[in-house]
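agent> Task received from the user: take the single chain below, predict its 3D structure, and emit structure tokens. No templates, no multimer pairing.
agent> Plan: (1) validate residues, (2) run structure prediction, (3) serialize to tokens, (4) report one or two observations.
agent> Step 1 OK, no nonstandard residues flagged.
tool_call: predict_structure(input=
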Amino acid sequence: MNPIDLDHILTVLGTAAWGTDEQSRARVAGALALTVYDGRTRDQGTPYLEHPLAVVTLLRAEIRVSHPETLLLSLLHDALEVVPDSEALLVRHLGAPFARRLRAMTADHRLEERPKTGGDETRWRFKQAALPPDDLLVRLADRVHNLRDLAASPNLDRRRRFLQSLEDFYLPLASAARNLSPHLEAMHALLHDEYVQHQQEVRP
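)
tool_result: status=success, residues=204
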């Protein structure tokens, strides 16, 4: 597979249909994504940037999201998790409001670059439940792609944790938010389908 470049990122975002200012902002965001995710890999051994691009694709193709700022947020949704000290760079190039949205979408222990401790999971769930609709949509799309990617992960405990959190948190959260927008309604249906599929896979 050829290395991901800026043109590829812009194509995945669908920027050809965007206005001039939005295209310029997308080029900045794309360059930042290349910088922040550079050299990083997921536990599957794949380049990290493939994940946010898959989340963008999911939102565009399956949920029919076309709002540029939401798609840029999905492109950079893990930036502060992967490189917490990239916040100043994001503020400088995309603005403080955008960086604050990313910060609200990132677990505290990731921002603070420390091991996860007791209470962090509860705080993280409250943080996600407080997200505005578009930001929650991105976070749920991230969860869907992570679920689809579980088969490629060598970490069996990660698989167990993801499936348990889907059942006891993410599905109820998506259900509670489903009436906030047509996109969240579609996302709830997608998460439910993932749940049914995984339940069938674990049956004897």
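agent> Step 4: summary for the user.
The CA atoms of residues 109 and 116 lie 6 Å apart.
agent> Done.
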